[in-house]
Each structure stands twice: as structure tokens, then as C-alpha cells.
Design brief:
This protein is mostly helical. The protein contains ten helices and no strands. Helix 2 crosses helix 4 (about 50-65), helix 2 crosses helix 5 and helix 4 (about 50-65) packs antiparallel against helix 5.
């Protein structure tokens, strides 16, 4: 009977180092995160805090149209991301995608504000205290239209528009 020698991958787990396969998966994840950054719009990209060299590499990738060149640029972005902490960038991407707990909490708070506004027009005073650039006439009109849509059983176009306006007001107030 031949004794079985442990392979290198088993040794790496015992020594506390990640295996080559795990390192490869980590690098691919960073490269995918970089590709996600390239897919963002310029306004969303400005909101993410990242080193200047990474920001410039992402801008360059947006200009590249050839497949092979874009693939190499994405690999370069992944390489740059290995030298930084990707957690803040991932948190910002989660925020943009709406999968973070904070984004969900804000969304639910805005939905509650919309519901309160539909129930009572005096909530406009609360909105006025939060923001200085509120178009009250537009908000009142959206409120009336949303109530009318609900009463007539129509699609909730104004209801959704009211949420969008409230979200924009909150974003402006936070900037």
C-alpha cells in the first residue's frame, strides 16, 4: 500500500494561508467589482470614494470599445483593487443597488412619508422644514392625482411620481 501524501492545497489550509483557488476567486471578485464600477453612470461614480488611480482606470475603461482591450483594462482595475480595501466600495455599490440595510431603511421611511402625506396634507410642513427648495404646488398636485388614481382604481402613476420626488428632495437635503 502506498502512503498518501497531503497535497499543497491541504498544507495551505493548515498554515492559515488561502489556497491558490481561493486567491483566484478573490481576484475574480475584485475584477467583477471593477466591472460593476465601469457600468455605473458618472454621477453615481462621483459619489464613491476611491483612489485617484482607480478612478482614472475606470474612466479609461469607459472609453475603451475593443473587447480585448477592455478585458485587459478590467484586469488592471482588479489589480489596482487588490492594493486597497474593497469594503467601502462594495458598501457604496450595495447602496446604489439598494441591497444595503441603510438603503432599505431610507426607502421604507420615504414610503411611510408618502403614505402620511396622502393621509394628511399638513405633512407638507414637515417636508418644508427638511428642505428649502420644495415645490409645494407640484407636491400638492401629485397628492391630489395619487388620491384620485386610488379612488378610481387607475394605475398608480402619480403615486410613484410622488415617491420619486420625495426621494430627490431627500437626496438634495443630504448633499
Amino acid at each position: 500500500m502506498i502512503p498518501v501524501e497531503p497535497n499543497d492545497e491541504d498544507n495551505t489550509e493548515e498554515s492559515g494561508r488561502p489556497s491558490k483557488s481561493q486567491l483566484k476567486r478573490d481576484m475574480d471578485a475584485l475584477q467583477d467589482m471593477g466591472a460593476r464600477l465601469v457600468d455605473l453612470g458618472t454621477d453615481q461614480l462621483k459619489k464613491i470614494d476611491m483612489p485617484d488611480n482607480l478612478r482614472e482606470a475606470v474612466r479609461e475603461a469607459k472609453r475603451i470599445t475593443q473587447h480585448g482591450a477592455l478585458r485587459r483594462q478590467l484586469q488592471y482595475i482588479g489589480k489596482l483593487m487588490r492594493s486597497i480595501d474593497p469594503a467601502p466600495i462594495q458598501a457604496a455599490l450595495d447602496e446604489i443597488d439598494g441591497v444595503s440595510a441603510a438603503a432599505n431603511a431610507r426607502m421604507h421611511a420615504l414610503e411611510r412619508l408618502r403614505e402620511r402625506l396622502l393621509e394628511d396634507e399638513s405633512v407638507l410642513n414637515e417636508i418644508a422644514r427638511r428642505t428649502t427648495t420644495t415645490d409645494f404646488q407640484h407636491l400638492r398636485q401629485l397628492r391630489r392625482n395619487a388620491l384620485k388614481e386610488k379612488a378610481e382604481g387607475k394605475p398608480p402613476r402619480a403615486f410613484r411620481e410622488l415617491y420619486r420626488v420625495l426621494r430627490e428632495l431627500e437626496e438634495r437635503a443630504n448633499d
